[in-house]
């Protein structure tokens, strides 16, 4: 028997089986790998400064990216309030006893630092101090020791704190750095140094420094942090303060620095760092003497 239509069906079937499969889509180009440069080195983690965005450490200090003052007034960098004491049950009472401020005329400075003298009224001209013993405590004057009944009359009479004086040069700032000691309690700031900085040349001179209670105590956990920087109402004196802690003993110290002689010293140092303008710097220094 003839099957005239079988061959065409067989051919069609073979044709379908031999069809070319679709080509796969072209492979996408590999994503280029961008190498990210490593971040700048971070100073050693120092006890008491965990909240600091910037921290200058002696031997590691790097002032690249120093912010420039914007309003022409006293500018302190890094911010002094980024340091913090180690808390304990009675820390509020200890902090209650810390305060400082110039009189309205800039001739006196009242400082309370939790030391044996309580509070001292310091004459700026000769640094002589008169002790004023507070009578109350945190419960009697919750707003601070300046509201204490033995201290408040002096605060009122001298109008403390007085207004902040005019800063002499918009290119100047106060900065600070810490020297550290590595001990059993971690990396501790054992010396705090305040400096006066001229930003256009990067020149710096020391204003003063504070040490932790002692090298022996520092090994057991004593440390120092900045507390406050204030300019007198007459613009002549800087009050530089630092807190020291050893165990549950918290104290604050203050050093008053005459600004004008330090400005002259800074401008003379700037003349050495900027020889092309040395005559101008020397003239500025001479005008202050």
List its traits:
single chain; 289 residues; alpha+beta; four-stranded mixed sheet
What does this structure look like?
With 289 residues, the chain is α+β, with helices and mostly antiparallel strands. It has one domain (76-286). Helices cover 19% and strands 30% of the residues. The protein has six helices and eleven strands. The chain has helices at 6-17, 91-96, 152-158, 215-219, 259-273, 278-286, and strands at residues 76-77, 98-102, 108-115, 118-123, 129-132, 172-183, 186-198, 203-211, 223-231, 237-246, 249-258. A hairpin with a 5-residue loop joins strand 2 (98-102) and strand 3.
Order of helices and strands: HEHEEEEHEEEHEEEHH
The DSSP helix count reads 6
Q: Which regions are unreliable across 5 or more consecutive residues at pLDDT < 50? A: 1-18
- Total beta strand runs: 11
Helix proportion: 10-25%
Profile the largest sheet.
4 strands, mixed
**Mean pLDDT reading:** 83
Q: Give the termini separation.
A: 133 Å
Strands in their spatial order, largest beta sheet = 1-6-7-8
- Assess the beta-strand content as a share of residues: 25-35%
Radius of gyration: 33 Å
Shape: globular
Question: What structural category do the secondary elements indicate?
Answer: alpha+beta
What is the count of structural domains?
A: 1
Give a concise summary.
This protein has 289 residues and is of the alpha+beta class.
SSE layout:
Layout: H1 6-17, E1 76-77, H2 91-96, E2 98-102, E3 108-115, E4 118-123, E5 129-132, H3 152-158, E6 172-183, E7 186-198, E8 203-211, H4 215-219, E9 223-231, E10 237-246, E11 249-258, H5 259-273, H6 278-286
Parallel strand pairs: 1-6
Antiparallel strand pairs: 2-3, 3-4, 4-5, 6-7, 7-8, 9-10, 10-11
């Amino acid at each position: 028997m003839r099957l005239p239509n079988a061959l065409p069906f067989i051919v069609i079937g073979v044709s379908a089986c031999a069809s070319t499969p679709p080509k796969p889509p072209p492979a996408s180009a590999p994503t280029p790998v961008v190498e990210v440069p490593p971040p700048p080195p971070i100073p050693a983690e120092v006890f008491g400064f965990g909240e600091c965005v910037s921290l200058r450490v002696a031997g590691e200090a790097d002032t690249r990216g120093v912010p420039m003052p914007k309003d022409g007034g006293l500018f302190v960098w890094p911010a002094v309030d980024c340091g913090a004491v180690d808390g304990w049950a009675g820390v509020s009472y200890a902090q209650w006893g810390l305060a400082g401020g110039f009189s309205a005329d800039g001739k006196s400075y009242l400082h309370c630092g939790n030391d044996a003298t309580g509070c001292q009224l310091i004459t700026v001209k000769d640094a002589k101090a008169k002790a004023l013993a507070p009578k109350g405590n945190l419960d009697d004057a919750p707003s601070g020791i300046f509201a204490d009944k033995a201290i408040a009359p002096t605060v009122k009479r001298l109008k403390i704190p007085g207004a902040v004086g005019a800063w002499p040069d918009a290119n100047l700032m106060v900065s600070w750095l810490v020297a550290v000691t590595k001990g059993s309690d971690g990396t501790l700031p054992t010396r705090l140094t305040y400096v006066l900085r001229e930003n256009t040349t990067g020149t710096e001179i020391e204003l003063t420094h504070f040490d932790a209670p002692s090298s022996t105590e520092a090994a057991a956990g004593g440390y120092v942090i900045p507390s406050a920087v204030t300019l007198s109402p007459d613009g002549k004196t800087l009050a530089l303060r630092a807190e020291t802690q050893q165990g549950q003993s918290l104290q604050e110290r203050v050093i008053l620095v005459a600004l004008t002689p330090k400005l002259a010293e800074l401008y003379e140092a700037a003349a050495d760092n900027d020889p092309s303008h040395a005559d101008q710097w020397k003239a500025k220094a001479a005008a202050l003497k």
